[in-house]
Amino acid sequence: MTDLGAVLAQLKAERDKLDRAIAALSGLGGTSSKAGGGKRKLSAAARAKIAAAQRARWAKFKAAKKR
Asked: What is the pTM of this model?
């Protein structure tokens, strides 16, 4: 028969590795759910710039549609 003590020691070492890996992955999962929370705020200038660009896109679209 094989040495059961050596097999048991190997299995315990493997279990310790798995426990550390599970703990590391559990820690990563907890932080990622909170990332990016809350609304981002645009400045008035940024909103005006976006609105102007959108108006230009619509004008281009409507001009092409008339042709």
From this structure: 0.42
